[in-house]
Amino acid sequence: MSVYRTCLNHFLILSFLVLLFLLFPIASFAQTAPELFITWQAKNFTPAGYLGKTLPIRKTVIDAALELIDGGRLIDLRNKEIRWFVNGGFHKSGLGLKTTSFTVSELSGDDQALTAQIINYRGKDRRKTVVVPLAKPELIIDTPSQNKFVAAGLNNFRALPYFFNIRQLRQLSFVWKVNEQSTSGNVQDPDLLELEIAGGEPGTEISLTVHATNKLDPLEAARELINLEIK
Description:
Layout: H1 2-23, H2 26-29, E1 35-42, E2 61-70, E3 73-74, E4 81-86, E5 89-95, E6 99-103, E7 112-121, E8 124-132, E9 138-142, E10 149-150, E11 153-162, E12 172-178, E13 181-183, E14 192-197, E15 205-214, E16 217-230
Parallel strand pairs: 10-16
Antiparallel strand pairs: 1-2, 2-3, 2-6, 4-5, 4-7, 7-8, 9-11, 11-14, 12-13, 12-15, 15-16
């Protein structure tokens, strides 16, 4: 009887261990590999309230940072050599060099490949590459109504520039046109157009165009055209 109980106890213990093995994934017992994290930030312009990622264009300065996580812990890299590469070419290296900056080439039209390499961490070189998408300057006309209908009377339109290499709006020049005829924006705020729409037949269409140019770089420009309809 005691032998039976002993065998039964062994069986129950073995069953319990098998159940634990099935309930917890194998990965939970394995040691995870060190993981590198690269973050980046484009140092160009987006309107206030923009919640998306600011994307670089040609000649944009990009700041980047590196962290290493191992065993759930943030690793001190002060004594580790860190090398940075941009589009496969060597950029910079140094002990504890967790941050760097680079400028997108004036001639570049492709996404940027940013690589960080930690030399000899736990007997191996650790390497990570991220792709930084390259954009172009953009313009959006903010209208009084999202459906592009306008009423007779005074209407305000604002040009919202994205991704220009500027710090302030005054570094851009704005040209507004209504039905292909030039008009002036607000003297103090040239990105704002105050347009007086005279009474007209409902359904009459009005084309509104704005063109923005970086005063320090005429090749950095964008244009937006919308068609409005009097309601």
